[in-house]
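Incident log, structure service

09:12 report received: a user says their structure output differs between two submissions of the same chain.
09:20 pulled the input from the user's history:
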Amino acid sequence: MFLDALADHCRNQPDKPALQFIGGPPVTYGDLARSINRSADYLLSLGIEPGDRVAVQLPKCLPFITFHLATMQIGAIFLPLNPAYPPSELRYFLADSAARLLIADAEDQAKLDPITAALPHHQKTAYIHKPGDSGADWLLDYSAQRDYPLPSDPDQTAMMLYTSGTTSRPKGALISHGNLTANIRSLHEAWGWRADDVLLHALPIFHVHGLVVALHGALHAGATAILCLAFDAAEVLELLASRRFSVFMGVPTMHRRLYQLASGRRIDLSHMRLMTSGSDRLPDDLFFGYQETFNITLLERYGMTETGMNLSNPLQGERRVGSVGMPLPGVSARIVDPETEASLPDGQVGEVQIKGAHVFKGYWRQPEKTAAAFSPDGWLRTGDMGMREADGYFSLKGRAKDLIITGGLNVYPPEVELALMRHPAVAACAVIGCPDKEWGEQVVAVIIPQHGARVDEAAICAFCREHLAAYKAPRRVILVDDFPRNALGKIQKAKLRAQFCT
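09:34 re-ran on a clean worker, output below:
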């Protein structure tokens, strides 16, 4: 399993750098193994047992990583929490998960103590001083210097990751050791991970993208991960151009900032073996802009909290604009009618359903929602609308809940958004459906204008009618300075609907 592969690397190449935070010393695989064991000693000294939930709310730092790996190593369940969560959200996650231990930044003690004191299952909060210190010796005073047996049951829960909760309170998705291992092995094969890879890691690590896909991917391969404490476009672009790195993973918001920073300059990044984009749809102009500006084609893929990665454009072969590629090794995908769940032929839009060893166990203490997440024949209902082309490539058409039905006709927001982005006055956009007495729903475009541009609502609507069927064109245009986004920069359309559809 994943932890076995990591243990092998720690044993066989103890002097090779595993991690390094920008500006800090390298952490070798031997260092990492010792830090994991120290962290495990500490957790066991607090009485943490297999199956207990260990919540960690720390900035991106070495203690976060070592507590993550140590928690899984001793058979407990790791619960990563966004450092930006306000007290009300944090209270919900700790109460719902019945976490016995919270590991947090000592600077947050004053706001956290009143929360944890009121939680019946909470045993202790361990406050870490100076968690931004990236050195490998932060727990030297807590060391028994011994190895621990690794979990051997692939069905044992390793992590609990809360979903974004766009339609209800967030649900804790239970990810097993087998789920993690199946997905990492699949990505290892599909993306050609190598021991000599050097990953530039600029993602958050409390999320499946940065923690599992990026960090686990590098450690499983025995590669080296260089970590930025936060994403800074200027710093990242300079590092990417330095020819020190072979792998970079980002989200469209990151790629947009890098592209804008280039400002028409040509910066050759063709030495990068793999640059991926995910967590939201990659706009067409960025796909082609990267080719022109950076001499590289971004690899777009598709995943979700409950599964890790599902589909990917090929490492070798056509990386198709607007497509999230084909199923990864060991993954099955199909398109079905969302009402009848009958399989649909190629070229028709329906719900994407997924099956494979990487698919999560279920939702924490929510058997009804777990049952509702799967079809009668065992496929995961993703809630994403998509289409399969005849040659096996998949494209996404938006969330099922984002589908707009106007006058009985279906409108897929990404199609309208693509048309809007062709208009020179539009810097960014999001299309939502708002209730309409006559049509059921009306198409509404929420737009961030280009700097200094004048946006005329009638002109925007007329422009869309030139490129789309009339019923798909927006009937209303709203101008904003920015969108509500989640931690990875994905636009939160539920919040837009709540703000503009009432």
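09:41 both user submissions now match this output. Likely a transient worker issue. Closing.
09:42 reviewer note: Residues 402 and 432 are 7 Å apart (CA to CA). The longest helix spans residues 29-45.
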